């Protein structure tokens, strides 16, 4: 399967379980892999035969910078669901949400979740 990869998009959001996360916010990094057939787009050189990654960025930005959620899992699920709603050519996607420096004890760079969904998951 062909892929469009939009990697390490950065946004500022207010997602988390703790009140300080909802009040102060923090940076989130999101990457998506969009599985779709790209042969026709490669042959026609026509954007209508592909998925516009500028529109993908705007969709992800609206979600991450929008309504606060308790879990990054919910953020990723919302992104996947809306990607399928907006892009008919999308067959499957992987969404990774990184949360650098969450307010939990320990030494680490970040926590992250990654989900993979297929169009049939939302049928």
Automatic annotation (TrEMBL):
Q: Give every Dihydroneopterin aldolase/epimerase domain span.
A: 4-117
Which Enzyme Commission number(s) are on file for it?
4.1.2.25
**What CDD domains does UniProt report for this protein, alphabetically?**
DHNA_DHNTPE (cd00534)
Cellular component, GO annotation: cytoplasm
- Pfam name, any one: FolB
Q: Which keywords, in A-to-Z order, does the entry hold?
A: Folate biosynthesis, Lyase
Q: Which GO terms describe its molecular function?
A: dihydroneopterin aldolase activity
Q: Which reaction does it catalyse?
A: 7,8-dihydroneopterin = 6-hydroxymethyl-7,8-dihydropterin + glycolaldehyde
Question: Matching Gene3D superfamilies, A to Z?
Answer: 3.30.1130.10
Pathway, per UniProt?
Cofactor biosynthesis; tetrahydrofolate biosynthesis; 2-amino-4-hydroxy-6-hydroxymethyl-7,8-dihydropteridine diphosphate from 7,8-dihydroneopterin triphosphate: step 3/4
Q: Name one GO biological process term.
A: folic acid biosynthetic process
Report the NCBIfam families cross-referenced here: folB (TIGR00525), folB_dom (TIGR00526)
The entry's function note states: Catalyzes the conversion of 7,8-dihydroneopterin to 6-hydroxymethyl-7,8-dihydropterin.
The UniProt family comment states: Belongs to the DHNA family.
Identification of the protein by name? 7,8-dihydroneopterin aldolase
Q: Which organism is it from?
A: Filobacillus milosensis
């Amino acid at each position: 399967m062909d892929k469009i990869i939009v990697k390490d998009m950065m946004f500022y959001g207010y997602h988390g379980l703790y009140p300080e996360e909802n009040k102060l916010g923090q940076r989130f990094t999101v990457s998506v892999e969009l599985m779709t057939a790209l042969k026709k787009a490669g042959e026609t050189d026509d954007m209508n035969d592909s998925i516009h990654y500028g529109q993908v960025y705007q969709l992800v930005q609206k979600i991450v910078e929008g309504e606060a959620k308790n879990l990054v899992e919910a953020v990723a699920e919302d992104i996947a669901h809306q990607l399928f709603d907006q892009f008919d050519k999308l067959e499957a996607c992987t969404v990774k949400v990184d949360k650098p420096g969450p307010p939990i004890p320990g030494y680490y760079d970040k926590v992250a979740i990654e989900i993979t969904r297929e169009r049939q998951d939302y049928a």
